[in-house]
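Q: Could you fold this chain for me?
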Amino acid sequence: RMGSTLTVDNIVGATTAANVKLPAGSILQSVTKTFTDSTSITSSGATFTDLTNATITITPKYNNSKILIIPNIAFYITVSGAYIYGGFRLLRGSSTVVSAANSRDGNGAFDYGMGVASNSTTLQFDTRHCAHDVDTPATTSAVTYKYQAQNYSAGRTIYINGYSASSSIIAMEISV
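A: Sure. Below is the predicted structure, expressed as structure tokens.
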């Protein structure tokens, strides 16, 4: 067998360039958003709070495309002699795509949980929420995703983008 090489400078669709179908698994487009807005969450229980400016919008080229959403959200918590736990969730519009909330509220597994056993010990945890999610919005209209967080521990505060941190979200359209 002999291999073939196709060399081109530009691929143009027969009707429009936007309609060129790439192989399954190809990245069709990528949108990136960086935000430095801070959010403090002191409430406890099953309530989720919108993270300030933690949204991203993408307009899929195809109705059956998958959207890969990759967050890199900085947060810190000070823990003193107790445990703190809660979670993040991703919404498409007002519909939950993925909820990694505290298991006590019935929405899934822990997203974060940390603590110390001694009342005399205070620790500060600086970390990032980086769990990626895949969605199939089944539309070619603009889709907006947003992140929320939940603090299930009374008397504790979660700080998003504290200490002037920067967070980002990437949304990629993947062909199927």
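A (continued): The chain is about 0% helix and 50% strand.
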